[in-house]
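Troubleshooting log. The previous run stalled partway through. Resubmitting the same two chains, unchanged.
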Amino acid sequence: MNARCAVLAVCLATLPSASAHRLDEYLQATRLSIDLERVDLEIDLTPGVAVASKIIDSIDTDRDGEISNAEGAAYARRMLRSVTLSVDGLTAPILLVESHFPPPGDMSHGIGTIQLRATAKVPAAGAGRHRISFLNTHQPESSVYLVNALIPANSRIQIADQRRDRAQHELTLDYTVAGNAPPVMAFAVLIGFLLAGRLCWLGRQALQQP
Amino acid sequence: MFRPALICLALLSPAVVISQQPAASAVKGNVTARVVDAANAFLATLSPAERAKCTFGFASSQRTGWSNLPSGIFQRNGLRFGDITARQREAALALVAAALSREGYQKVTNIMNGDEVLKNAGGGRTGGRPGAPGGPGGRGGGIRFGLDEYYIALLGAPSATDPWMLQFGGHHLAINVTVVGRSSVMTPSLPAAQPAKYTLNGQTIRPLGQENDKGFALINALNAEQQKHAILNYEVRDLVLGPGADGKVIQPEGILASQLDARQQAMLLDVVHEWVGILNDEAATAKMAEIKANLPQTWFAWSGATKNGGLAYYRIQGPTVIIEYAPQQGDLDHIHTIYRDPTNDYGAKLLKP
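Second attempt completed without errors. Output:
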């Protein structure tokens, strides 16, 4: 490899405004994972440089420069109160499972991501078509949103349609749940019983022959 | 934001990398053997201490320890280009070139040169929160850009039979090449660019210009009915499956490639090749054949302007490929992309017993 190195004059057609990381937006990225009796939420929140101090101040309520577990949990619960999730028109309460807060210094430079993991128990979805509605109204004045559904791990669930508003505050998911296929073992046992019954009948017929 | 201005800057240090010779993979033969030779030649230039800094266990957490962020706010492991000699740097780049195609290596050097341009243009003055450690632009000494801030690491011992990995990256670049026998994969990888356009030696360089232009050409090759399916009615302002989203597969959207005609399908594959073709020709050919075979289950989604020069995001998602192209925060001069294979990131499929 003979990569040449040289000191060169560079003429820039444009001078970039140089942002290595998030600036004036609060990025709120949510991924939904649908199962028969629950919906899991992964919410990643990344404040940009220009909005970080406001976000940090709203979390670090005692202003000691650190985010305690209690402060983090309180903010996480506040954030989740801005999120609504309903399944087939019924609101499903969202419970915080865990949260991770980066150092405030990282957030102030636009590279710290708050990670919230939450879950909503929903009535067991029977076979047929269902609808999930998700809405995030947290910090709308400075936020950009991403919301997506993961491909369901449960093969009985198939996402049929997804619709969002322009800013991705809202996501409506239509999905279908396939009926319970008979378990292989139960099917095999049933076949076995039928065969055994048939054999008994044939045996009895043979004995009754003159 | 994009600020048009003609400004000439003299680069005083330390140099701009220019690749004018073919990458090793352009030569026919056993690619793995050549990559292994290049890796061993690079390792031979290192002192024991440097070697210890550069090498990791194949299964170590270093595997997922990559980022698009610059030094100063993301701490990479491995050997920093600014800390090695010109000879060592040349051997490191020879290894990268051996693993990649000629075009792929050129793309990598264009991205790196762009970061040097960014540095010399005063890049990264993002202005931290008043009183934040490190002052404006970074904590603990500030954000660092440029050619010195690229890192190389090897996971596992270079081998023609046993699995190992080459990691090369810095600001706006993460190349992860896993080698298993004669096969190699380059997922996940993150090629990005800022500035998206610069002039070097009188030449206009657009590191991701083809990705932009071919994407716009494809969306404009669709008829109105096809566009209705392909164009999402919402904004996508960032990568959905960027760094840290390993193993996630989202519900696909847009238009299925089975609803495209043969010419449009060829254009879609041509877009895909901009990422797949970064890797050496042998591996890229195999990967493209796999993606082509899965084309009927591959989706193309678009969000934003359809006139080239406007802001637009796009995603290509198939059973064995996910590609996203995402201008950052409304800035045409700052592009992030991601290339993943949900079945084979870090060579997962190749490592199955």
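Takeaways: Chain B has nine helices and 16 strands. Chain B touches chain A through 82 residues (CB under 8 Å).
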